[in-house]
Amino acid sequence: MRTSAKGPAAEAYDVLIVGAGPVGLAAAIQLATRGRRVGIVERWPQQYPLPRAVVFDHEAGRILASLGVDMAAVSEPAVDYEWRNGEGQQLLHYDFSDGSHSGWPNLSAFNQPTLEAALNERVRSMPEIDILRGWEAVGVEAGPATVEVTVAESAGDEPLLRDGVRAKRTLRAAYVVGCDGANSFIRSCMRTSVTDLGFKFDWLVLDVIPHDRDREWTPRNLQLCDPARPTTAVVGGPGRRRWEFMRLPGESIAELSKAETAWKLLEPWDLHPDNATMERQTVYTFQARWADSWRDGRLLLAGDAAHQMPPFAGQGLCSGLRDAINLSWKLDLVLSGKAEDSLLDTYTTERCQHLQHAIEKSVGLGRVICEPDPAAAAERDARMIADQQTGRVPQGDQFLVTFTGGLLDRDCTGATAEPTGQLSRQGRVRVGDRTGMFDEAVGIGLTLLTNGDPRDGLDEETLAWCEEVGLRLLRITDDPAANGPDDVVDLDRTYLADLTRKGLEAMLVRPDFYVFGGAKSTADLPRLVAALRGGLTAVSAPELTA
Fold it and tell me: Over 50: is that where the pLDDT of 5 sits?
């Protein structure tokens, strides 16, 4: 990475990312890993030092691990999540201790500044990335082959003037990705509408560092559905706790912003300035909204620039990381000329399916949690307690979504087309002398996994195309002696069991871990690979000149 207060070492990039939060950094790392030259523009001169997001799920954990993040150093498993009413009765209990779909904890708690520091360290190690901190995007001019972005010096929350003048410069890129938050400047430059569900509640958010690190919190993650004051009390990352209190009618934001108000609300947990440090106190407006199109020509959106949701399901950052991994491999194929530019249209199609599901789930939880009427809350409590007693409670991962549109095997979509469009599993494997989780041992990319010969029926021209686009052809086996160039030893039978369960002999998995399609026999491999090739339809990409 090259960084400078005066600007980047070069003016032209494959991709320019506006915003250096976790989503922007993740997208930059993924693109740079593929050899792309990336510029990042961030209006704040320094990394934001205070907590924001505090949880991510197993899929986000897999994405972060693929970026080279030391997961044990930045997070800890969140083993439970309990809902109680105002009388302390249990309404719902989630146990996250079981193994997950992706090989990482079902839910993890983390401190965002710690995570961002790890991502920034990774960025600094990559010469393909230039980062401009203290520069703000103020102008966009999109042409047929490139985008010109005017940036101006910034102190973060206000322009930076030198002798009364604000320094400006122009950067160019083939594509620009706006990861610049809910008030996105890039979004304002795009032709896109915004869908707003009208779900808005103000909550006081308190990030606290208890001085007694050995104190037991039971449950570790609590949702208090009390109409007198809906409250959240959860792990905020190693050594930290977070409380969220809904603003009640008649309460002002100014009153909630007072330190004495915060400590008064924390009294039931025996927390006070003598035994805890208030790291952050702020009032958030929880919203549910998304941009209807995340692409306008060479301008794209990701993260909060594309969507915002209530935090009740912990899916905000997870959704942004899904954006980054979905978009980055597609941009790389388009920039290399191995896919049509229209491949980028599948980004909105695919991500909106998942995003809208996450928002609807989050809003549904919020409507239950934020109930202010005591009579309605009592009815809710009785219903939820009865559901627990009869076993009518949510089971499984509520945020696993099957894509039905986008870049998928068109011969295998529909209700009975499992696993097309689904998130693939991850387990422990051995490849040669490397043992670990699949992504660590094998790497990230287009992958054809089969329990037979992965080259069965593929002619030389097709094999050459597979090599050109980076489609890896692998045989999955439980034979501990297997050591061929295509062999992956399935140490826990994660993949073999999954293939058997789905009645398949092969799956083609995309770089974002979603299944493009499956084959019931190796004889169907040529058709499956041809379907992917047809979906990409290689053309020449425009050249980006300095």
Answer: no
Q: What is the DSSP string of 311-379?
A: GGGS-HHHHHHHHHHHHHHHHHHHHTTSS-GGGGHHHHHHHHHHHHHHHHHHHHHHHHHT---HHHHHH
> What do you get for the CA distance between the two ends of the chain, in Å?
19
In this model, does residue 326 exceed pLDDT 90?
A: yes
Name which of 37, 296, 283, 33 is nearest 184 in CA terms.
296
Burial label for 268, CB within 10 Å (0-12, 13-18, 19+), is exposed
Q: Which whole-number Å values give the CA distances from 317 to 33, 162, 304, 529, in the listed order?
A: 21, 36, 8, 33
Under 8 Å between Cβ of 71 and 113: no
Q: Mind listing the pLDDT tens digit for each residue in 173-222?
A: 999 999 999 999 999 999 999 999 999 999 999 999 999 999 999 999 99
Listed residue (305, 1, 4) closest to 153, CA to CA:
4
User: What single DSSP character describes residue 165?
Assistant: B
Place of tokens 């947990």: 269
pLDDT digits (tens, 9 = 90+) for 440-492: 999 999 999 999 999 989 999 999 999 999 999 999 999 999 999 999 999 99
Nearest to 473 by CA among 452, 496, 503, 491: 452
Helix axes 525-536 and 460-469, enclosed angle (nearest 10): 50
What size, in residues, is the chain? 546
Distant-in-sequence, close-in-space partners of 59: CB < 8 Å, separation ≥ 6: 101, 102, 318, 321, 322, 399, 423, 513
Of 10-14, 328-332, 339-343, 482-486, least confident by mean pLDDT is 10-14
Q: In one letter, which amino acid is 546? A: A
Tokens at residue 22, please?
């976790």
* Residue pair 419/507 in contact by the 8 Å Cβ criterion: yes
b/e code 92-113 from CB counts within 10 Å (16+ = b): bebebeeebbbbbbbbbbbbbb
| Helix, strand, coil share of the chain (percent; to 5) | 30, 30, 40
Give the orientation angle of helix 316-335 with respect to helix 22-33, to 10 degrees.
30
- Please tell me the distance from the alpha carbon of residue 201 to that of residue 33, in angstroms, as a whole number: 40
Average of per-residue pLDDT values in the chain: 92
Q: CA 25 to CA 12: how far, in whole Å?
A: 18
